[in-house]
What does this fold into?
Amino acid sequence: MSSGILALREEYGPSIAALAGALAAGDETAFLSELDALVRRREMTLFGELRKLTGDLQSALERFRLDSRLLVLAEKEVPDARHRLDHVLKLTDEAAHRTMDLVEQSAPLADRTATSAAEIQLVWKRFRQRRVDVTEFQAMVVKMDQFLNEACADMDRVRGNLSEVLLAQGYQDLSGQIIRGVMTLVSELEVALADLIRLSKSGADTSKPVKEEPARGFGPAVPGVNNGPAVSGQQDVDALLSGLGM
Amino acid sequence: MSKDMKFLVVDDFSTMRRIIKNLLNDLGYANVTEADDGQTALPMLQAGGFDFLITDWNMPGMPGLDLLKAVRADPKLAKMPVLMLTAEAKREQIIEAAQAGVNGYVIKPFTAVTLKEKIDKILEQRANAA
It folds into this structure.
């Protein structure tokens, strides 16, 4: 005999015996109350099963919701994030080049002003010492006129370039907003992946640690992200290298 | 070595190459060529004519460390002065670069003064050795 039927016999045997007894004795009240108790006991088992099924269904639904969220993240939002970060790269690149263009345009103007001023200063010094003759004085006046005109125009352009340099820094606002959006996505992805691992935990940890590739490089040190012992600046590098005999 | 020395600047970011190029120009070195990673740089170096290599570390394709090793392994290039200009700041990396035969290591962000100092120092050592 199977253990199932044995358990059933143990569970229901006394009730059925009581039912049969009540029936034989013609005790209607005892029979009905015993029958009620039997049915209730059976219902309790069914409810238990049902509760378990509902629980399973609920976690399946939760899992499904998580799966579809992960699907959206993987198919749409992660590639989107990549595009957004690409755009940040483009924004910073453009701003840096724009700034350097403006600096390169301005430097010769500043140089020219400084050189011309220095030239005039030489004659001017001798003029103050009354060591300049009329011809030289006339030449100085012509030069001065030219310098003042040029300096006004050049410095106007430098001034304009400087305000454009200022404007070019607007990339920080835009790229900052985009990066913040990607950070939100990354933390959402982190939560979804952690939930997925929790729901599908199989016990054995088969994951392999990710191998680091030192030859490729780790990128810039980021405050708060520990990547092993690092130098804090050029002085530290110099100290380390001179320790190695360089 | 004089101011006509020919520099090769290797960095994957065009802005950084431009910054380095401008700084070198300010230092009086007008002869500066650019490459965007080790893979592009190596054939340029092998083609000859360069006197000084400034390279980043972290680049797609061939990273700077591999470029350094390739340069040291090539008999024609083995003696070329190499300055690493990089954000890589791990102690083990700096030691690795030193062991691979780097002549100087400048960490980003850097200053014009530091760059000048390191280049001068490397050239000075060259002159003393010669």
User: Anything to note?
Assistant: Chain A touches chain B through 27 residues (CB under 8 Å). Chain A has a mean pLDDT of 87. DSSP finds five helices and no strands in chain A.
